[in-house]
Amino acid sequence: MDIQLFSAFSFFTLGLLFGSFSNVCVHRIPRGESVVTPRSRCPSCFTEIAWYDNIPVISWLILGRKCRHCSSPIVWRYPLLELSMGLIWGLLAWYYPLSPYPSLFLMQSLVLVSLLWVLTLIDLETFLLPNVLTFPGIVIGLIFSWFMGYFPDALIGTIAGYFVFWVVAKLFFIFTGREGMGGGDFKLLAMLGAFMGWQALPFIILLSSVTGTIIGTISLIA
Q1: What percent of the chain shows pLDDT beyond 90?
Q2: Which residue ranges in the chain fall short of pLDDT 50?
């Protein structure tokens, strides 16, 4: 088998497994629970999930989208996160030229995309961006930048990323008397600055503004 195809398939499989763990993170981190113990349980009947009922995507299909014990429906987020994480990991492994060992670019991309995907789902469900993910994300981003030779840009991006949104939020509050964004947004932009350097911040801010405007307009119309 071609080494690139084999690598993509291997990382697709690993992505499925990490997607399963990511579901645990999305469910437990906002609740302040450990992501290690106890073992995965049905959120309805609290029965421990056996390993053969915890195979990414496949178990969900075999069980007919229901818990084996109480027949409560298993929400679509679980297989979607597993499958999307697998596809993302596989595509990233295909995109980056690989030696027999993963490159720094690939590892950096896997970490960043995985963090963003988990943070996005937590944000959608709880409107929170937990420090337990953003703070380590900042540190990991800076570590990658050190080894990849752009640490000064990443450090500036971290500081600027935090304070740009902080200033915007403060100005919004001064002029409107309302909170425009939470502290989690500051830390998220700082994390992106750590991974991508200060040069990426203008595009990220523009994209965030456009996306927020579109979503806000849709919600008003709906």
Answers
A1: 50
A2: none
Instruction: Specify the pLDDT at position 104.
Output: 87
Report the C-alpha gap between 93 and 109 in whole angstroms: 10
- For residues 122 and 173, give the distance between their C-alpha atoms in angstroms, rounded to a whole number: 25
The whole-model pTM stands at 0.86
**SS3 for the chain, per residue?**
CCHHHHHHHHHHHHHHHHHHHHHHHHHHHHHCCCCCCCCCECCCCCCECCHHHCCCCHHHHHCCCECCCCCCECCCHHHHHHHHHHHHHHHHHHHCCCCCCCCHHHHHHHHHHHHHHHHHHHHHHHCCCCHHHHHHHHHHHHHHHHHHCCHHHHHHHHHHHHHHHHHHHHHHHHHHCCCCCCHHHHHHHHHHHHHHCHHHHHHHHHHHHHHHHHHHHHHHHC
